[in-house]
Task: inverse folding
C-alpha cells in the first residue's frame, strides 16, 4: 500500500508479528473463531455397524469451540414392533459411571413403531446443550436393541469434526436379566453407532 517501507503489525492466533509491504503485497486477516465457530444445523455420523448389538449404548460427546445443542439421535434398531426408547445424559464422561442412576438426567422416553434393521431418528423434547470444550455423556436404550460396534479402548475417537467428537463408551448387553433404561456396572467397552444431529448458534 502507500505506506511504502513502513512495516505492518497484526495478530494471528494470538501472536504479534511483523510483515513488510516491500516483500508482501497481499494480506489476509482472520480470527481463530472464524475457523472454529458457526451457525446452523449439523450432524456427525459414526462408522457403520456390524452384527453386535445390545439394549443400550453409553458414550461421550465432546464439544469443540462452540456450545452445541443436540436435537436428535439416529440409531439402528434390531427388532420390529412398538417399543419405547430411553435417553439420559450427564455432564462429564461416563467412564466408570454407568451404574448410578441418580447421576444421570432423564431426557425422555419416546415410543416408536420400529422396523427391524432400520435407522430410527429419536427427536428430543428438549435439546441437550453441551458447553464449548466440555464433555457430556449420553445413554440411549431400548428393548428393541440397537447396534453398536466392539470397542478398542474407552475414550477412543469414534467420529470427529471440528464442532464435535464422539468417543467410545460401553454397551448394555442383550441379557435376559437386564432391562432397557436401567443402569449397570461392569460393562464391556463398545462404540456407539449412529448419527447425532445438533445446532450451533454462534454470534
Result:
Amino acid at each position: 500500500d502507500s505506506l511504502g517501507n513502513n512495516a505492518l503489525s497484526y495478530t494471528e492466533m494470538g501472536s504479534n508479528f511483523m510483515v513488510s509491504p516491500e516483500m508482501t503485497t497481499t494480506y489476509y486477516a482472520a480470527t481463530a473463531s472464524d475457523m472454529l465457530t458457526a451457525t446452523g444445523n449439523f450432524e456427525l455420523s459414526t462408522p457403520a455397524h456390524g452384527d453386535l448389538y445390545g439394549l443400550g449404548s453409553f458414550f461421550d460427546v465432546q464439544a469443540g469451540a462452540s456450545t452445541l445443542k443436540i436435537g436428535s439421535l439416529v440409531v439402528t434398531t434390531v427388532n420390529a414392533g412398538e417399543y419405547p426408547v430411553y435417553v439420559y445424559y450427564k455432564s462429564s464422561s461416563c467412564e466408570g459411571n454407568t451404574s448410578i442412576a441418580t447421576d444421570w438426567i432423564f431426557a425422555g422416553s419416546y415410543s416408536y413403531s420400529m422396523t427391524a434393521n432400520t435407522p430410527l431418528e429419536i427427536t428430543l423434547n428438549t435439546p441437550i446443550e453441551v458447553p464449548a470444550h466440555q464433555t457430556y455423556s449420553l445413554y440411549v436404550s431400548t428393548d428393541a436393541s440397537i447396534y453398536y460396534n466392539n470397542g478398542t479402548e474407552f475414550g477412543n475417537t469414534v467420529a470427529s469434526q471440528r464442532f464435535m467428537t464422539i468417543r467410545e463408551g460401553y454397551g448394555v448387553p442383550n441379557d435376559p436379566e437386564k432391562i432397557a433404561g436401567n443402569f449397570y456396572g461392569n460393562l464391556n467397552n463398545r462404540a456407539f453407532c449412529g448419527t447425532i444431529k445438533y445446532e450451533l448458534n454462534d454470534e
